[in-house]
Amino acid sequence: MRSVIVIGGGISGLAAAWELRGAADVTVLESRPRVGGKLRTGTIAGVAVDEGAESLMALRPEAVELAAAVGLGGALCDPAQSPTTIWTGGALRPLPAGHVMGVPVDPAALAGTGLLSPAGVARVAAEETLPAEPLTGDCSVTDYLAGRFGREAVDRLVEPLLGGVYAGRADRLSLRAAMPRIAALAEQGGPLLPALRRMRAAGAPRSGAVAVQGVAGGTGRFPAAVAAACGARILTGTTARALAVTPSGRWRVQARTDDGPLTMEADAVVLALPAFAAAALLRPHSPAAEEELAAVPHASTAVITMAFARSQAHFLPEGNGFLVPPVDGHTLKAASFLSNKWPWLAAAAPDLFVLRASIGRIGEERLLDRPDRVLTRTAVAELHRAVGPLGEPVATRVTRWERGLPQYGVGHRERVGRIREAVAKLPGLAVCGAAYEGVGVAACVATGRAAARQVLAA
Ligand SMILES: Cc1cc2nc3c(=O)[nH]c(=O)nc-3n(C[C@H](O)[C@H](O)[C@H](O)COP(=O)(O)OP(=O)(O)OC[C@H]3O[C@@H](n4cnc5c(N)ncnc54)[C@H](O)[C@@H]3O)c2cc1C
User: Fold this and answer.
1) Are residues 260 and 358 in the same domain?
2) How far apart are the CA of 401 and the centre of ligand 1, in A?
3) Which residue's CA is the closest to the ligand 1 atom numbered 49?
4) Is the same domain home to 249 and 167?
5) Distance, CA 71 to ligand 1 centroid (Å)?
6) What is the CA(38)–ligand 1 centre distance, in A?
7) Positive or negative CA dihedral for 165, 62, 176, 181?
8) Residues 397 and 339 occupy one common structural domain
């Protein structure tokens, strides 16, 4: 049986290990004490809470299918149904249904939300009348969408969504990589509003379908279940430091563990790492891949989880949370009302109201220089302004994700093409993870499984 070392025990690496089960002898190296990477469940006031990703894309099948395959089918759960809300202009305002990453489909529905000024709504409606040559090449989200819908729509509708998913900014993110559905329509030419309406009519999700699902007990259960089911040897506390090719053409991995150095060999290696970590290991083997991977920018964020005692709270908000456009000048980027959103959490902690706030987009790194207590105080103060007087939390927890989210800048897809071309010249080596074809968990699972198939086929 061939041997494979998977470096990185986040969901991408574990999905690769799962794909290799039965076909190879697999070892997963993970530098932290636990597998899971950005799927991490901690506790606050004795309750399980997600500190990183809290949901799995459900309209795209890869993550929920794998979760079901590893025995978590019964734990998959829908969030409470509630419209996405934007905190802007001093109020929480719902995004109209049917939007695609904030791009509106129905200007009339938008008019009732108060999200845009009357002039801003009129500018959105005018999109239908603007000539639209087919888009060729890539450009930033702002460059394309502000020209179509006006700057106000980008600032107040699209920016908050991009901040929520990528911790990114519309003027830096690639339309093709960060908003592929919109880019595909733009490449066909013609106004977007009628095309979006047609797309919605033709491909509307099945009735009752939800866009995301959670895992009862926390998404951290997902990587743990994949690790247990894949049959791989999992070495936690093991950081890969260098890669070499042996005279017989096998891969040698030098790692550091708590017990000292470790050297292992295998027929193939899967790098399931953030771009900068993969770059460092590839330096001696492919300067081209190293250069491209090292050039992928990353945003840092902090998640501040808070528990309020229901008995002491002056007021508890409704809905699942809100997103914040940077144009309003607030520090908060988003808030998720976990006790409203996830029934499993409400049942586990009926006396508490648990929420999480997030801070930090690309370019806002200085905000995160503040100590935990200052971040928490800022978050509480802004939550009071956004939703009302919540009172003081009885427990708080700050989780920092330094360089946690790769940024798909203009030309990202071409960059990924060049990385994949360079890596293809290294026999028995494949790469996967959030840096390539999507940051969401479902996309990561897809890249992990594809990387496994590549090394098997090699
Ligand atoms: C705060 C936050 C919230 C998010 N929310 C969502 C969400 O709700 N839904 C969603 O779909 N996506 C969400 N995402 C994105 C998604 O969680 C990640 O993109 C995805 O989990 C990345 O998985 P990965 O395996 O590619 O990388 P990672 O999770 O980063 O895993 C890589 C692993 O490699 C390990 N490692 C690094 N270097 C080495 C080395 N040299 N040797 C050994 N191991 C090493 C790391 O410790 C890590 O465990 C969120 C991301 C963040 C940061």
Assistant:
1) no
2) 9
3) 37
4) no
5) 22
6) 4
7) negative
8) yes
Determine, yes or no, domain membership for 129. Answer: yes
Determine, yes or no, domain membership for 58.
no
Protein residue with its CA nearest to atom 53 in ligand 1? 404
Per-residue pLDDT of the chain (458 residues; tens, 9 = 90+): 799 999 999 999 999 999 999 999 999 999 999 999 999 999 999 999 999 999 998 888 999 999 999 999 999 999 999 888 999 999 999 988 888 889 999 999 999 899 999 999 999 999 999 999 999 999 999 999 999 999 999 999 999 999 999 999 999 999 999 999 999 999 999 999 999 998 888 775 554 456 899 999 999 999 999 999 999 999 999 999 999 999 999 999 999 999 999 999 999 999 999 999 999 999 999 999 999 999 999 999 999 999 999 998 878 999 999 999 999 999 999 999 999 999 999 999 999 999 999 999 999 999 999 999 999 999 999 999 999 988 899 999 999 999 999 999 999 999 999 999 999 999 999 999 999 999 999 999 999 999 999 999 98
Pocket test for ligand 1, best of 303, 441, 449 (most atoms within 8 A of CB): 441
Would you say residue 132 lies in a domain? yes
Any idea what the CATH number is for the domain that residue 147 is in?
Answer: 1.10.3110.10
What's the pTM? 0.96
| Residue closest by Cα to atom 21 of ligand 1 | 38
- The three-class DSSP label of residue 305 is strand
Both tokens of residue 296? 């992928």
| 286 and 413 co-located in one domain | yes
Same domain, 101 and 195: yes
Q: Is residue 236 in a domain?
A: yes
Environment class of 188 (CB within 10 Å of its CB; exposed 0-12, middle 13-18, buried 19+): exposed
Minimum-distance ligand 1 atom for the alpha carbon of 434: 26
Q: How many domains is the chain built from?
A: 3
Match 């987009």 to its residue by tokens. 361
Of the candidates 81, 61, 85, the residue with the CA atom closest to the CA atom of residue 73: 61
Pick the last residue of a domain from 135, 167, 202: 202
Shared domain check, 373 and 412: no
Domain limits at 271? Answer: 2-35+65-70+219-296+408-457
Which residues 6+ apart lie within 8 Å of 47 measured at CB?
Answer: 307, 345, 348, 349, 352, 354
CB 12 within 8 A of CB 266: no
Residues 289 and 433 in one domain: yes
Residues touching ligand 1 (Cβ under 6 Å) are 7-13, 29-32, 37-39, 52-57, 239-240, 272-274, 277, 301, 303, 401, 404-405, 433-434, 439-441, 444
Residue 442, φ and ψ in degrees, nearest 5: -60, -45
Dist. CA 289–CA 425, nearest whole Å = 10
- Give 11 Cα–ligand 1 centroid separation in angstroms: 7
Give the mutation target among 273, 358, 400, 416 for probing the ligand 1 site: most ligand atoms within 8 A of CB.
Answer: 273
